[in-house]
Amino acid sequence: MSRPFSRYYVRLPLSLWCGLLLVLFNQHATAQWQAFSASGEMHPRHEAGLVVVEKNLYLLGGRRIQPLDMLALDSGKWMTRAAPPIELHHFQPVFWQDRIIIAGALTGPYPGEKPVPNIYFYFPARDSWQKGPEIPESRRRGAAGVVIVGDVLYLIAGTTNGHISGYVNWLDAFDLKKHTWQQLPDAPHSRDHFQAAVIGNKLYAAGGRQTSQATKEVFTRLIPQIDVFDLQTNRWSVLPQLLPTPRAGNSTLAVNGKLLVVGGESQRKSPAHNETEVYDPENQKWLSLPGLLQGRHGSGLGIADGYIWTASGSGARGGKPELNSVERMPLPEIVNGL
Prior knowledge:
Blueprint: H1 2-25, E1 34-35, E2 49-53, E3 56-60, E4 68-72, E5 77-81, E6 94-96, E7 99-102, E8 106-107, E9 114-115, E10 118-123, E11 128-134, E12 145-149, E13 152-161, E14 165-175, E15 180-184, E16 195-199, E17 202-206, E18 227-230, E19 235-238, E20 251-255, E21 258-264, E22 273-280, E23 285-289, E24 302-304, E25 307-311, E26 326-330, H2 331-336
Antiparallel strand pairs: 1-26, 2-3, 3-4, 4-5, 6-7, 7-10, 8-9, 10-11, 12-13, 13-14, 14-15, 16-17, 17-18, 18-19, 20-21, 21-22, 22-23, 24-25, 25-26
């Protein structure tokens, strides 16, 4: 009688320990992207912008002039809004006060796209567009990273000559109230086709490449280094940890003090990257989460209703296929996964 009990008693702690170790080892795997079904239709687009304002997700710009699409997350319904006055693509939109801001965009066809000379504003409350201040001619570029800190817009890196050449490492600050520009120190690495994020008092430039059709290197010159600009000291540094999966066309977002990098494109033709990678500045480590259901590049990320959201983009290297799908990941899972 005692032997079976003894054997059971020995096995029980072992199984529990194994289970606990498995949970600890795979705790990051609990975060999963989910398909989100919405009523109505959106316009497939890529090299476009995504931004969340309150509980509305906005898709705007991209190749061709198309109406803006707004997804009301409470109702799960797509609504069509006003189209931009010109073609705007390759930009990272940001929200400030009552408007969505587009700065550092490109316009025109591949491969010689031109930098858009002006900032553009979209006002969600009145569904209208407005041409904003000019970007200094000598500092114009597109496919740049853009972030907002207080009332200051930061324009990071980008390309002055579309996909042909012209990648730069510039950093400029635009005071949205005073309408004044300031040139800041150049970043350690030139890059384009990337996105930036703010964590605390630091700007992070993550992903991207040095696009150069002139040397037949459109997709191959990837930048795995993460450049960090300290807003207090006005100095750049480079993280010792490289981006685990180098790629361009990625979406980047700050999530509860951590850097989230999702999707992208590289020299691989198909499919687009679906990797979801998170960097924790406190422990200086990268963690891989389960990937997107559909790899994509040329889109963005937003936070609303307890989820990280993404939509549209291209499902393979280049511009096709343009996607009309929406995915979301529970926000607490990303935080708990670290």
